[in-house]
């Protein structure tokens, strides 16, 4: 993908970044649950 | 300087230097990647030394964009006495400065538009022709583009209660797409406005400065300002004297906001890790504190129980000892009594019954004490 | 019967109710004006000054002063300061109402309010910091609403669903801190796109950091301030736990606010050094800047410290109001007063009476709704059925 303006580039790259952010916010709590699943308490 | 020669020079410059290698404004991404804008995008060169303040461009703009007719007709030049700006009824304005110097303002169609960078619904964007285009169908009317614009160009229809919109120069995009000139450029009687590829215009402007020593300030306004603009300006007097700010700098709008924008995903990535860590440490501390408390309670209880047992044992021992002493005493007493009786044996009374009674009562007493 | 009627009327026409009623009626009139005659008819906004009081106060101050929600809940649930537990619910409620009012106020300010969901669901302008603000405010409003629902569920007696929400407390709190960090800072970063319009003393590459850090002590001060008000007007609604803990909350929050404010003064000075702006301090704008930084940050920070050291609650309560005023001053400086500072005086913005009226109307609306909820629902006290459940 070719971009001619920094603005277009940022709109695209930040768009992807926002999706990743959403993924992280969902994944991290689940991963914590997995990590501590076998704890006694 | 006649018209044909100017045009010839422009074409020469274009042919000789190509179109994309021109000194355009450069915008950098954080990675160092550079963006030079759309190749072959258009612009307009405004030579303010040629402008005579006839307001023909204002009139053409009004007609092309189907705007409401103004209160005073376009040939009424008394309007020029007041400093004006663009608004919802006027997309371009010519202002008069000292010594009858005139300068036209309108949207500069930035290479990296601050308005587009600021718009949170992509209602503004840079077209490949070079025009910065507004899409009313997306606009929420937040007016952040007006806050962002360093040239104070976008206007807002404040008195439209339900469907207000942003208004600004379109660079006559529909005309450009038809291969025609923008309205203002087409009508200008003095060729103060030149339409062309931006890169060519920069060459042309440079040549004008070089060919006419002393006539121009040695600066092409818009070449680098705020990352560069599609509209370029030449002036015979300092630009701040024709109402153009010289302190805008060359940093483009997306670069200005790149820092805080870059901080956003890092916060999302690291805050949950850090905060969950703090929470887990506190939870562990609490758990340990609880365990320690429980252990302390248990230890105290055990100690108490032990001490109780010890006390009991001591008591028992004491009692046993007392019992033994008592028994010994009783035995001794019994023996003494027996002796006494034996001594009294000379006397006629029976002695054995008394001794028996004493021996019987002893075990009963000790049993009670042990409880 | 004949005795009851005057009593009922007396309760109905209290000075509070009368004043509130008048303000709400005026607000309704202004609302009708706004949506029939346009923004231009009620405001002094123009093409040079597109953002006025409704953004500078309603949005910027509203969001900053609602920071008590994330500060209190993170102190209690993440940093393990359980002694602040009784302060969490009122803080969450005020934060939720604060954000709800911010969004409500935006409906007056933006041109086409029904398009407010556009940036999130229709056309995402991801290069804009306003997109970031919008997305975060939308998500955080949702988080705050969920965090508040246990109080409503207790009131209504929905035990099961309350249990589900309470189990999400930690995740919601962390989300709340993440979202607050982002949009508090982004509100400051909104102005970083316009270095040519904001006075250099306020413009900084650290503007987003300044807004985030100042939101911390804004939130703490607001919790203290709201506590003072609630003690005066809603004392009877507070249970023994709340009353027993409230002095500790005031002292602890006062000390925290003082320390954060000192840190803030430090980074403001760093900002001046980084951009070498010392020479501006001798100008009129410099004096105004010092009024803000010394008069409304440093001095209240010192008063906070005196209150915290001498266990003087009055000092802390006064300092809290002072610090809140300082935050308001800072937000107005960045968005209105030091913004467009280069424009000639005739082109500067001064809010219209109707703009001020609308803002008062919205704040009053918030007070009324808070009062209703705090009177009806277990906010300042614990519900008897759920005393042990936290």
Order of helices and strands of chain A: H
Number of helices, counting only DSSP H or I runs of 4 residues or more of chain A: 1
Q: Which radius of gyration of chain A do the C-alpha atoms yield?
A: 17 Å
Please give the radius of gyration of chain C in angstroms.
22 Å
CATH topology of chain C: Formate dehydrogenase/DMSO reductase fold
Structural class by helix and strand composition of chain C: mainly alpha
Euclidean distance between termini CA atoms of chain C:
45 Å
Query: What general outline of chain C do the C-alpha atoms trace?
Result: globular
What fraction of residues of chain A sit in β-strands? Answer: under 5%
Query: What is the quaternary state of this protein?
Result: heterotrimer
The fraction of residues assigned to DSSP E strands of chain C is under 5%
Helix content class of chain C? over 70%
CATH top-level class of chain C: Mainly Alpha
* Order of H and E elements of chain C: HHHHHHHHHHHHHHH
Class computed from helices, strands and strand pairing of chain A: mainly alpha
Mean pLDDT of chain A: 88
Helix content of chain A: over 70%
Give the low-pLDDT segments of chain C. Answer: 1-8
Describe the structure.
The complex is a heterotrimer of chains A (41), B (371) and C (390). Chain A is an all-alpha fold and 41 residues long. Chain A contains one helix and no strands. Chain A has one helix spanning 6-36. Chain A is rod-shaped. In chain B, helix 1 (3-17) crosses helix 7 (198-211) and helix 8 (253-344) packs antiparallel against helix 9. The termini of chain B are far apart. Chain B contains nine helices and eleven strands. With 371 residues, chain B is mainly alpha-helical. Chain B has helices at 3-17, 56-64, 114-118, 144-148, 173-177, 183-187, 198-211, 253-344, 352-370; strands at 27-28, 34-35, 42-47, 93-97, 101-105, 124-126, 132-134, 155-156, 166-167, 193-197, 231-234. Chain B has two domains: 3-251, 2-Layer Sandwich (Alpha-Beta Plaits); 262-370, no CATH class. Chain B is 46% helix and 11% strand. The model of chain B is unreliable at 1-24 and 361-371 (pLDDT under 50). Chain B is rod-shaped. Chain C is mostly helical and 390 residues long. Chain C has 15 helices and no strands. Residues 1-8 of chain C have low confidence and may be disordered. The interface between B and C is large, with 63 and 61 residues.
